[in-house]
Queue: 3 jobs
Job 1
Amino acid sequence: MSVKINFGTDGWRARIADEYTFDNVRRAAQGYASYLKSLKLNNHKIIIGYDKRFLSEYFAKAAAEVLAGNGFGVFLTNDATPTPVISYSVISQKAIGAINITASHNPPTDNGFKVRDENGGAVAPEGLALIESLIPDQASEIAAMDADKAQNKGLIQEFDPIPAYVKHIHTLLDFDPIRAQGFKVLVDCMWGNGAGWFPMLLSGGKTIIEEIHNQRNPIFPEMKRPEPIQPNIDVGLRETVKRSADVLLINDGDADRFGLGDERGQFINQLQVYGLLALYLLEVRQQRGAIVKTLSTTGMLEKLGKLYNVPVHETGVGFKYIAPKMLETDAMIGGEESGGFAFRGHVPERDGIVAGLFILDMMVQLNKKPSELLDVLFDKVGPHYYDRVDSRFSGDRRKREQKILSAKPEKVAGLKVTGLNTTDGFKFCLEDGGWLLIRFSGTEPLMRVYCETTHEDKTREILETGLKIAGIH
């Protein structure tokens, strides 16, 4: 019996050689090809790219053979490529979608399969459901064409996606002030696709860019996984102090997520980074427009929305919700708790490279170090503290969900519960404007417990209460 392929928060991910096999990648590609055919579009161009995980380029080639076998013209990247660059290639090549072979921040044992729409953004949930329904049960139901034959017919073409993307992001930002500032910037590439990008973009001035973890190594040494949060970034934080760097920029394995360390080697968490990026656009760039956020990210955005008179829209977790809402509202910025941020005038897709450039420009324009930028933000909205615990679980998920739903706590860590949001998981709203969220991962067998509060001394107690509510001690 064939494996059921499910598209979670951001595509399908599975363990290599277990469920993630060449046959199953081909099945997923056939489902996407059938979905595109159902749209009855005149354009038949598709972008396919990949990351630096084990066998990714070969899985990408297998997907390309399926799309070619279905009559699509495939533009296959000529090297491992950051996810935002793949997404922008949909626009630059006037394609109707993309396949990206990557498991992003997952453990080294995994690989993944992401799909993108004609805007370069995540496919909406109803589209993902249709793709799933069109995935054939058997590999024998797949139409594929050998890569050499497809290349001879012009159905598969390798291309360099870098020039068009670089030309475009120069329209978003003037790089010269960053180059001239004389920063010492450390970049943790997390063994991924972001390696070489900041040196390429910012060389030629007084600013010095140094990189760590910038080779291909699919086992991701010195970290559990290429996710830009602690403890995975602890080596980078120590190196920041050791090298006397002004800032640590961090990209995950496919460079769509962004993490930040200050000049003291302290982590600035991803909710704080979202607050900084929103403040940068509102205050430094004087932009106005909607802010789109998932329910698992910071309440600082609502406070900024009130201060600057811009709307704030909350969605479920994942860019499959954020991207459509950004397009609907012409949003200035969209983002999520995992460190993914998208910007107006670009593609509705997370871009860890542009996010890093914007933070550097904020440092230049305000003449502040990263720790001082955080002070500026807190002067506007007050201090906010965040933490998260991930726990693998066993047993029936629905029973756990019923247990959480029936808990109905009146207080959490001494703070009154003012409401419950079940849009995506179980979000207990607290009297200080903070929250406790219990949510099941859409890509892994994990339960995540998150919190944000204005009380620094209560984060651990809030998380422990969440674990107890979920039946994990």
Job 2
Amino acid sequence: MKKKIFGYELVMDLFECDKKVISSSKKLKEYIDKLCKLIKMKKYGKALIPYFGDKQEYTKGYSLVQLIETSSITGHFSEYWSTAYINIFSCKKYDHRLAKRFTTEFFKAKKVKTEYLIR
């Protein structure tokens, strides 16, 4: 029996990010807009970019959810740790190397850990 592929997921943990970028809802929206265009994903609705978790210094920051016609892009950002945690999941194949390079450069991360899953 031939294995069927449901989707492709890039999981990125970015370290030592630019705090000005990860703490700006405007920059996070810009990231989503540019990323979707770059990897040829059609956005479904507007991005949700709430700021919360401010009861603890290490948990406060933005999260983002952008539905795309073939699934979603999510992210969580820690100002305290200067980190970003981003997942790009799509049933449609995309250039995950290009997405990784762009994301690393956009957030000015000094270190990135990734995993690419075929599900």
Job 3
Amino acid sequence: MSRQDPGSTIWFSLSIDGESLGYFNGCEGLASQVEIEQHQEGGNNGFVWQLPTRVTFSTIRLTRPLTPDTAKVAKWISSVQTGIERPTAQIAALRADGSEVARWGLIDVLPVRWTGPTLDPAAPAVATEVLEITHHGFTD
């Protein structure tokens, strides 16, 4: 029996409607929350009903060092200005050897922010980019 090390380095791939936008080394915001409405029933003093109302989803932030795939991200963001339909997306968590750990499908994805690198010769550092996307929920 072979066991994978869950603590190994993880990379994230992002694809929009099947087209890869490359690999990212940081991903945060894969989250959802069910909003609850409390309802008190007359004559029932033992508890308060907790009823689900809607599900909300966090904005997802993907980070990586600058790569040639940055042009693909810029092209996708530019296409939003022409009124495209909101696509589906896939985020896959990958081990260093390329094997998949987990995958998340996203419905109605939209880029909401892109931040490019700060280029300062007085403070050299790795040039990074951050892509923030929003969505309407998870899918298979």
